[in-house]
Specification:
Length: 410
């Protein structure tokens, strides 16, 4: 049974710094160019959420970041993205404006970056732009800006007022649900609805799952992303005892899956469930939370540092760092950085336990950051292993029953 970190000796690439890229290249392996560029345009936030992995977990590097990306760094980031797209003849790229809270960067920087990337890449590259916001400042003037620049907007919402305000509060302690709901009503009404990309909901198992799901549906989101709170074997997620046989997160998600899957009308796309179903049918995953697809995303920090996914900041100080910088390094250099390569080698990066698991191809060891163990590094099953196993098995059983009914073999 999976769910233990007591695996045999970890492979050589258990820790990203140990990945031997030259040896991999010598075997004929090729890195995948980046498709997704996350720009940290402002490093601070106007909320003080208690579950925030950027400010409240192991890595505290945000403290030394400038508050806002400078125009000089923005210009160089634009050039680096365009250069990478041109070098690899990418037909489409995605730019994600992120923070901290990206709206704090102001309309001029947002506009400069979006127009800059679109005009710098060649005519053969489509540029999709998304912005992920806490929704507090999403007023009509920002919405007009998003509309004029064709930026799609994702908003973080944890459920109804009680659920959302449990964590998503201002520094004064006041909850943000009322303000975020107002912004969501503006975003989802009339001319702006097409900009709405979906809701990001961080799971807190103290909230009622179905009430949470229904509170999200009130805003008619095209997609819902349920985000498991970040943690690892050194610092387990809240209410999860990795040594026990309990599966509190699967127990929380399964009623939502049953409601979503059993609904006669498709109210929204729940990304985690859809990706698991795709993987069970043999398709590659499109999300880094499950599956073995190579991660093709890079982060440009507010100061111009080129980094790994900031989710890794939940593991340990410096986990996302590459020591590369847009002023001195092309993104092709990042593509060959051991910590990036470690996330592109699929099954070779996994623990022996994951490689022997019957859910290997559908789970893929779970989110990279959740695998971290101080002794076995990232070559460890996810700290959510038992929850993932139970959730995926439940989804597989439910789908298999339906297929059997359709075929008349049930
Ligand atoms: S593949 Fe997933 S379910 Fe299987 S052992 Fe690894 S983390 Fe656990």
């Amino acid at each position: 049974m999976p769910g233990s970190s007591d695996s045999p000796a970890p492979p050589a690439h258990a820790f990203p710094d140990l990945v031997d890229v030259d040896a991999l290249l010598a075997t004929g392996w090729k890195p995948y160019p980046f498709q997704q560029f996350i720009l940290k345009i402002h490093s601070r936030c106007d909320l003080a959420c208690r579950h925030c992995y950027v400010y409240e977990m192991a890595d505290q590097s945000w403290r030394s970041q400038p508050r806002r990306m400078s125009d000089a760094i923005a210009e160089r980031a634009i050039q680096r993205i365009a250069e990478h797209a041109e070098q690899h003849k990418l037909p489409a790229i995605e730019v994600i404006l992120h923070g901290g809270e990206p709206l704090l960067a102001g309309p001029e920087l947002i506009s400069r970056l979006v127009r800059g990337v679109r005009s710098a890449v060649g005519a053969g590259t489509r540029v999709d732009v998304n912005l992920q916001t806490n929704g507090v400042r999403l007023d009509r003037s920002f919405l007009e800006l998003m509309r004029s620049l064709e930026i799609r907007v994702g908003v973080s919402l944890d459920g109804d007022a009680e659920a959302h305000d449990r964590h998503r509060r201002f520094a004064t302690g006041k909850g943000s649900h009322a303000l975020v709901s107002e912004s969501l009503r503006r975003l989802t009404a009339g001319p702006y609805h097409q900009l709405f990309s979906g809701l990001l909901c961080t799971v807190d198992i103290r909230n009622d799952p179905l009430r949470t799901y229904e509170a999200l549906l009130e805003f008619d989101p095209p997609t819902v992303d349920f985000l498991l709170p970040h943690g690892n074997w050194a610092e387990p997620p809240p209410f999860l005892d990795p040594a026990s046989a309990t599966t509190p997160y699967a127990d929380w998600l399964i009623p939502i899956f049953d409601r979503w899957y059993g609904s006669p009308v498709m109210h929204t796309e729940v990304r985690m469930f859809r990706e698991i179903m795709r993987l069970l049918m043999g398709s590659p995953s499109r999300a880094e939370t499950v599956g073995l697809s190579p991660v093709r995303m890079v982060v440009i920090e507010t100061d111009g540092s080129i980094e790994q996914s900031d989710i890794l900041k939940s593991a340990y100080q410096g986990a996302a760092r590459t020591r590369l910088h847009v002023l001195t390094d092309p993104l092709d250099r990042a593509m060959l950085h051991p910590s990036i390569v470690a996330r592109q080698i699929g099954v070779d990066a996994l623990s022996p336990l994951c490689r022997d698991c019957d859910l290997l191809s559908s789970c893929g060891g779970g989110l990279y950051a959740h695998r971290f163990h101080p002794r076995t590094g990232f070559a460890t099953p996810s700290v959510y292993c038992r929850d993932l196993y139970r959730l995926i098995t439940h989804i597989a059983d439910r789908c298999a029953r339906d297929m059997a009914t359709i075929r008349g073999t049930a």
